[in-house]
Sequence to fold (1492 residues):
Amino acid sequence: MRSRTAGLVLLQLSLTACCVSAIHRTDLFPYGPINGDLTLHEGDDETSPVLTLTKPMFFYETAFSNLYVATNGIISTQDLPMEKQYVDDGFPTEFPVIAPFLADIDTSNGKGAIYYRQTESPSVLNRVATEVQRGFPGTIFTPTHAVIATWENVAAYEETGRSSESPRRVNTFQAVVAYDETSTYALFLYPEDGLQFFGTRPKETFNVEIELTARVGFTRGEVPYFFFSRTEGPYYSVTTNEQSVKNLYQLSNVQVPGVWLFHIGSSYTFENVIPAANGDQLPTPLPQRQIIEFPTTPEYPEVDYSEPDDTFGDEQEYTMDPDFQNPSVPEFSEPDQDPPHLQPYGGDATLTSDPQTHDAAPAVAGPEEYPPPETRHLHPQEVVQPQHPQHPLPEHTLLEAFPHGPEGEVISVEEDINFDSGVIQYSPENRETCERYGQQCSQNGYCTDYSSGYCCHCHAGFYGNGRHCLPNGAPHRVNGKVSGTVKVGGTALRLDDILLHAYIVVGDGRAYTAISEVPEPLGWALMPVAPIGGLFGWLFALKLPNSHNGFNITGAEFTRHAEVIFYPGNQRLSIVQTGRGLDSENYLNVDTRLEGSVPFIAPGASLQMEPYLETYQYSPSLITSSSVREYTVVSAESGAETFSFQLRQNITYRDCRHAPRSAPQTLQLNVERIFVMYIKEERILRYAITNKIGQVGGGEQVNPCYSGNHDCDTTAQCLPGEGSSFSCQCATGYTGDGRSCYDVDECVEGLSVCGSQSECVNLPGSHTCRCLSGYEFEQDGRTCRDVDECLNQPCHHHASCYNVPGSFHCRCQPGFQGDGFHCHHQHERPKTQCEQHRDSLQRGDGSPPIGAYVPQCDEQGQYRQQQCHGSTGHCWCVDSRGQERQGTRTPPGTSPYNCDAPERPKTQCEQHRDSLQRGSDGLTLVGAYVPQCDEQGQYRPQQCHGSTGHCWCVDSRGQERQGTRTPPGSPRFNCDAPERPKTQCEQHRDSLQRGSDGLTLEGAFVPECDEQGQYRPQQCHGSTGHCWCVDSRGQERQGTRTPPGSPRFNCDAPVRPKTQCEQHRDSLQRGDGSPPVGAHVPQCDDQGQYRPQQCHGSTGHCWCVDSRGQERQGTRTPPGSPRFNCDAPVVPTQRPETVCERWRASLLEHYGGRPSPQQYLPQCDSAGEFNPVQCYGDSSYCWCVDRDGREVAGTRSNDPVKPACIPTVAPPTMRPLPRPDVTPPPSGVSLLYAQGQQIGVLPLNGTRMDKGRASVLLTLHSAIVVALDYDCRERKVYWTDLSGRTISRAALEPGAEPEILINTGLMSPEGLAVDVARRRLFWVDSTPDKIETANLDGSGRRILFNTDLVNPRAIVVDSRSGTLFWTDWNREAPKIESSTVDGHNRRVLVREGIGLPNALTYDSTARRVCWADAGTKRLECVAPDGSDRRVLQSNLNYPFSMVFFSNHYYYTDWRRDGVLSVSRDSPQSTEEYLPDQRSHLYGITVASTSCL
Fold:
């Protein structure tokens, strides 16, 4: 027996007969500890620990993985500041907020409680989905996760001692946030009597009787604006005054008073929160006991299972979970009535029986083995009241887990048994396997089974995602259409499915895109929108080592959402491109939709875009990137103007999650050349882009396969070897030597995989299979099976159908006569099919329409075997059904085919020819080439194009013989002569011809070949007029190019090798012979040497150079000023240019004076030295350098948080200089901190910073003091100096001077620790990556560790136990380690969940190691053995160094440039000190008059 079951919960509808009331408290979503909720600490300003979401949630357009629930009626995506920064301010807040009731709430001393949890409960998710369907009709929303926060009986804050004569007023309300992979919705619920106060009094003005109304709504918080500022983000307010707050439980936007629904986030473009639109009228009250049924979300399917016997009959099982419970219980109809399906508000949605949806299953015991909820078997008449589970629930259940199957269905994970739960059946046999679904893989791929399902992979020689595979190295084409509406200025222009074509040379990453029929104003304006064609560049980019292009990941089915924001006009354009798969010719189909506005560009303008780098982030089913690009528009009206745009994009695709993942999560697309053009006369918009993809920060590849300087055929793959060696291999589906490749006809060569009853169709580089008439593909997509036409009942209802292989027959039943398609009683004959066909074409007067084909019927009404078209004169034979017999059509004036002769199947030529004829009129497509066939149906050796006049020879397959094409009017090739293979020149020339029309691509250079097919020594570009000499391989001979109108080079003269100047000059010329706009092109004399005087054509600057072209210092003059005499000696400038300045000037010149934001320029300080942090333009792609500009290994990153780099050259100081002696701190305890060239003192009053007595302990000129520590026995301070590369000390006595302890063998000593007990000194050196130790006087120096260190930063010592601790902020694998002070027992304490662990200290009272992380923004502690890890603070800025004293952590912060403190007992309370001199603070330590 097969049965279906579904969970059902029915609740009583809280409606009265006289009016519509608000929901009751019992209608809230189940909450409280019994339902697995956590409880927020009591207090006036509390925030929950971070609630880490199982999957990210979109709030507005941004994905967030963390949520925080706060006392004051809000939920935020980030840890909250102190309430004084927001609770008494208006809306919006500066940080992201979901606010069901933002007010100054207090739960101290038992004044209410706040509960929260994250859940995947089907009952909760179904109920939310029901509300979304109610509030947003037509929306398909299937939530996968939800967060529920409930404020129960919470009170407003009241000043201590303030008496209140009125009884205490309390509020109860609830917020439910539910989301799936793309959308997020929020429900606010306010039960009747749930709001008793509507605002709170500000704390600062409690002596004034004013009240701030509660704020309800949503705010995104501050968002980045352009590059370097922030601005107020979008927000949405539900309430504006006290009355609107009161209305919260009286009105609604979903027709249920007290319930409010909002769409608050999406992965696509999302401007602002959208409220539900069904709240204009409140519902009319229903009579009590009236049955209401709401639709439910298609979420949880019922799964069939087989019962071994009939014991269960029609039983239904109801699975209870905590979120299913509700105190309200419905009344049921009598047993003899059909049980109603009641769905009131507040009840859980009835689970659907849609087989495409998911079903609920009982929770299984998790890692802590809590028992599952109770399961009961009930007959419908027994269901009177749902029973609560009798098992105890866990005290703290943060996430309710329901395991999901491969397609999202809720399943049990016990794979070793089959069980009948009454809810669902699951066994390993239910998983997807290759046997069942392997046909979904490409014919050039294979299927592999994994433990959880199957995945497709491409065969060797092919690339793709397994579902779609293309031959390696073969060029590819893309076809598609562009539609949408785009505004240019104030004019909206519509695009109605205009054509897009792209051609990609995969071997070197070149992508050419053309969009036709673009109206003129829009064509110019769309020139900057190269990202349209950029998609194809990324999909088929040239792959550098250890990388993959987009097609490897997405295959041919994907959706790309991109938003382009233009500056400074802030126009926005949305681009949606959808991959529809591969067509019958194996070409990619992509539809593009454009919506929005673009800046106006003057007609006739040209546009240049510089090369750029773009980083792509990869995650399962989603790829994202974001970048900013500049472009220059050159027009006659405005000259050269530079603008920019920001591009944000995400690409979604179908990911196979079953196979192991090894692909990089981040790759870098290197776009080397961008060319855009709008051709007004043809209304064609063109983009040409050269793309490579590889590892982020990967070095430049010198092999020609990666640089694109190889000579492999466009249908060949370049295979790199050692150094610059390479080989060429024809792409799969092609044959040749790699430099000349030809398509393999798999159909003729017998290489196809087509089965019986199918025919092979050759494609460039591949082939496809097509079933014969009367057959169709089976599920594997390869085997053809007979179509049983009789299933569709094609015969007359008085006839019998007989299926035969490839066809069928109809035969009239006894007593009837006819052809089987029309049967009639034998005593009468109705019209036959032919007669019906014929008569249907006759008009009322009995005459047929002019030009129409009218069939001829014989005396029995059957089709005559010979049919002729009265207008065109074509004749052909037909079968009994009037269907034309293939190969029998003859044109007018020729002898008709003998229709009595046995039918010959159509040849390939005849199929080709007839496929180009339109319908039954026999006419061919205008302008199309139609092959000519002989009497036997074979291709005639000589073929000619009727429209263009070109003629050529073909082989027996109709393939053009290379080198035989002749233009119109010229003598035709002798097709009987033996065929000569095409030469390289002829292949090059013919590859540039479009299709069969013989026309070349406009503007392209077409080589000229002589009679033997060799390159002519002199080549000229037909469009630009440039001419040059070439060698036998067609490679340009250097120095022979001449511009149009100038004398041509004598190509017979011996070749002089290019000089350095000529190579420099020619390297800057583009393919058309013109240099890039704004670039400096060196001037060479007649001998090819640099002219002594060089000038920049764009900027007007001039300077002198030496024989190597290097600028002579001090000779540069600005435009308009007298030029320097380059024959005179150079007078030295006041300060010679530094290495950094020379490098920067050289690159500026290379970039034409206008580097793009993605191009690297060295950043120099005021003294000309390298800044310690170097970045690519305005990006976050940064690294540290030493004083010589060399990169510090392991510091490169692409994080928003820049690496913690320390300068190695001290800033210049002004004379006169005071003596470097000590000014002792006051008695007691003080903080000592390092600030560049000085050590500061900050006295402590208890644990509070005595800012008024802050002073300078020691001034150290030309130093960079980084690390500090203190010896309490001798009262001496120790420090490291990165500028002097020394370790020194000084006594805290008046007039004491520094003493250098170590001044050799140091590079970057960044961390320092004093072992007071053992009188030893320890330090880390981050350049040679080692840890050393010495006695306190510098003697006895030795290395402790010099392996497995990348960026050691901080070090501390616990003198009591003799243990060392240090941090290593290696970007790839940061860690915290420990060992004994003797270097034994080295071990890693912390490896996970850290980013930039700069600061480290030891809490001697709690015996814990604590660190502050500039990457994760957290202050954490752990036991010395690595256990009991705890987070104390999670909203730090940029900590650098830290010390512990008297239950407080004091740390220096680079964002604030100050000293901050955090209490261990109350981490939310902080104090800060900002020195008058604002610059980075480094090390910090505690100094006291005696050892503590």
Summary: Residues 151 and 571 are 43 Å apart (CA to CA). The radius of gyration is 40 Å. Residues 1-19, 279-344, 346-428 have pLDDT under 50 and may be disordered. The longest helix spans residues 122-135.
